[in-house]
Design a protein that fits this description.
Structural class: alpha/beta
Bound molecules: magnesium ion
Order of helices and strands: EHHEHEHEHHEEEHEHEHEHHH
Shape: globular
Number of domains: 1
CATH superfamily: Aldolase class I
CATH topology: TIM Barrel
CATH architecture: Alpha-Beta Barrel
Radius of gyration: 18 Å
Largest sheet: 8 strands, parallel, barrel
Number of strands: 10
CATH class: Alpha Beta
Strand order of the largest sheet: 1-2-3-4-5-8-9-10
Distance between the termini: 6 Å
Number of helices: 12
Strand content: 5-15%
Length: about 325
């Protein structure tokens, strides 16, 4: 099967930063290696934020250097390990750890930006632009998160034209990949399709990803609409990590296994080995200490003893 859908795994970063359990460097290393062995070729390994801001990712330097060290030569053909950075200090740390794929971001919503980063979107953009120019000079690969692209937890629905304006600006900077993010997972399928249609009239979709959460059980429906509109890059998290049932408002990313399964049902390859992926989910579940796994889990497990074997690759 051709690899027609690119799965961008964010579990080690977006997933773990929202879990209360803190994994060791070794456990994170095993998680990342398991994902690589399951066929995931693009992994956001960590975020180089201040350790006090996100204690779960305080070991970013070691995690990144370890992943790159164990998968030497990754820049040529192997897996890509991405580090999220928001300032010069984060960039310096990522670079020193050997990271050559960097992700940046800014929010469309003023209120979200002020409350979460104590920065206006304009200031966040100015910082990001400086960092992106540095990355481009350094020959690094660049990705940009357009946060609160549909809904802001404080402002409510965001005008699609406002999001489009930001996406166009970022595209003009020559960023390699732009992830349009439903940061809190409150977008609906029609709005997802509408925004992607709007963007597609202005910029080529091959550089565009959608970053979806499954907060309101619409992750797959939103992904289907994005797929229909031409998106072929999806951010997902193994096990749907990040959705802690004890923390209201904290909700998981769209589960990698759900997206991979849907793509398979549609006849679209992802290059992900579904059985190996479940091996990663089970190992991770033991570490996290609560049930994880996408919506397909119940059917998948109940079908194992009577369904014909399916080749997911
Ligand atoms: Mg997210």
């Amino acid at each position: 099967m051709n690899e027609l859908v690119k799965v961008y795994e964010v579990g080690p970063r977006d997933g773990l930063q929202n879990e209360s359990a803190i994994l060791t460097v070794e456990q994170k290393g095993r998680l990342i290696d398991g994902l690589v062995e399951a066929g995931l070729g693009h992994i956001e390994a960590t975020s180089f934020v201040h350790p006090k801001a996100v204690p779960q990712l305080a070991d970013a330097d070691e995690v990144m250097a370890g992943a790159i060290g164990r998968h030497a030569g990754y820049a040529a053909a192997g897996p890509e390990f991405v580090g999220l950075v928001f300032n010069e200090r984060g960039y310096d740390r990522a670079w020193a750890a050997g990271c050559r794929s960097l992700a940046f971001g800014a929010a469309v919503s003023e209120t979200f930006s002020l409350r979460n980063t104590h920065n206006t979107p304009q200031a966040a953009l100015a910082t990001a632009r400086t960092l992106i120019e540095r990355a481009q000079r350094d020959g690094a690969r660049t990705r940009f998160y357009v946060m609160t692209a549909w809904i802001c937890p404080f402002e409510g629905p965001i005008s699609p034209h406002k999001t489009l304006a930001l996406v166009r600006e970022i595209a003009d900077w020559g960023v390699d990949e732009i992830a349009v993010a439903d940061t809190i997972g409150h977008a609906d399928p029609l709005s997802v399709g509408h925004l992607i249609d709007l963007i597609a009239r202005r910029i080529p979709l091959d550089r565009l990803a959608v970053h979806l959460h499954d907060t309101q059980a619409l992750g797959l429906a939103n992904a289907a609409m994005a797929l229909q509109a031409g998106i072929r890059i999806f951010d997902t998290s193994v096990g749907g990590l990040g959705g802690c049932p004890f923390a209201p408002g904290a909700a998981g990313n769209l589960a990698t296994e759900d997206l991979v399964f849907m793509a398979y049902k549609m006849g679209l390859g992802t290059g992900v080995d579904f059985r190996r992926l479940w091996g990663v989910v089970y190992e991770l579940e033991a570490l996290i200490g609560r049930p994880i796994g996408g919506r397909i889990r119940q059917w998948w497990e109940s079908s194992q003893d009577h369904e014909p074997r399916i080749d997911f690759n």
